């Protein structure tokens, strides 16, 4: 709920002690929501200014109580602003819980998502891939845009998530953004991972999306005919990166190597045997198993073609996966291949 924050301090006079002191209580009001809490302070009832919500005079007790009241007030205001900034709305109970340490305002969806992506980025080249990191970043961007469009907030507490949320997000991706089933899945899977992290860290007790079953697209794979492959090989596509994409596709066709394996292929993995044949001896990206591939003339010619375009020890100046994907679709259109 949105609304102005009001904090009031008062005495619990129905439990006045023999020395005339009472417990100091606090009341947080935001819009129509209200929450009370104990300030864990005691004040002399005879020196309490109910209108000001603090003690009068300059006694040691008055100065100490008023100082602590000011500190509590500042803390509550800080939590109020932080939650409101992150989520776009806030209740008195949420601010009270944050102030008392019952719930951390840091445990929000996009914040944990961003932390995950940053940790992932630091592991690129060690045990993580840049292309996968970009997918996580794209998924984060779509989720952020959805929160702002649907809920008018910049972030959301994990405890606010429910099954209706994932249904609405699925609808947003599938219908409003017109994504294909497998593209929807590529955005949902990272979100599900963040939810698992939240469950494992105790931010939420269970997965609110446990019953969600995404609609998967039916992938239809077919092999190119020899004629279609020859058409691709002989066509000039007039741009460097489109021709490069074509050559990488042809190289893959003649070696059986996947995109990730071609991208990480280094010069030291090219081995010429005593009989003059060129081989690739490398470890597969996914399995780690060593593969030995004898290169046919077509593959050797492609390696030679890009010899002067190398950066570092990589054999090819391999484009990013998204660029390859877009170019392959355009190549298929130009060559009349469905």
From TrEMBL:
Record's keyword annotation contains Protease: no
Domain Arm DNA-binding, residue spans: 9-96
Keywords tagged on the record: DNA recombination, DNA-binding
GO biological process per UniProt: DNA integration; DNA recombination
Keyword DNA-binding annotated: yes
Phage integrase SAM-like domain span: 108-213
Gene Ontology molecular function terms on file: DNA binding
Protein name, as recorded: Tyrosine recombinase XerC
Organism: termite gut metagenome
